[in-house]
Amino acid sequence: MIRAALVTTAAVAPSFLVTGNTSVTAWLLALTSAPLFIGLAPSIEWQLRKDAKLAFCKPVGSTVATIHLRNPFQPFDLRTYQELLELVEVLPKAHGVTKLRLSSPMFYHPSGALRSFASLEKQLHKLGASLHHSPSSDSHVFGKLCIKIHAIQHPEKLSQINLQRWYQLNITLNNSETTKLK
Fold first, then answer.
1. Per-state percent for the chain, helix, strand, coil, to nearest 5
2. Which 8-state DSSP code applies to residue 134?
3. What is the pLDDT of residue 133?
4. Residue 133, Ramachandran bin (φ over 0: left; ψ between -120 and 50: alpha; else beta)
5. Which of 92-96, 110-114, 160-164 has the lowest average pLDDT?
6. Which of 165, 72, 179 has its CA nearest to residue 130?
């Protein structure tokens, strides 16, 4: 991909370089290189406030945001749960998000049983959103790496998580204010 972008730039720019028109050359270089830099740019991580327990990433032009815990081993407690519901309300209006995706091995109990999502489904329904969940088919290489790096400081916590077994929640959001049942 890098080679293709450089070849394109080299094929277009030399005639302008000879004439010395540097503003056109710079413009063409930026125009032909932009897809390369946009593709390699990391997603920006957002959070609702400084002390947030959740963070979300939304690639430019996408309507899907991924949500994750700011600290890989923090519990999904009441405050985290409330923050997730707040994101369900805020993200469609502020960022045009229509779907939230959460993937984690911690959706399973240490015993291996799947945790219940009944309360979450009920609260999402009140907000006009729906929950779909299933075992994740992604490899989660980056997620596994982050958890293992954090586990260096807390190796006992890693023993409670099966990194080979991830579960995914997909929350479909409704942008209409009229469906709220609050």
1. 45, 20, 35
2. E
3. 87
4. beta
5. 160-164
6. 179
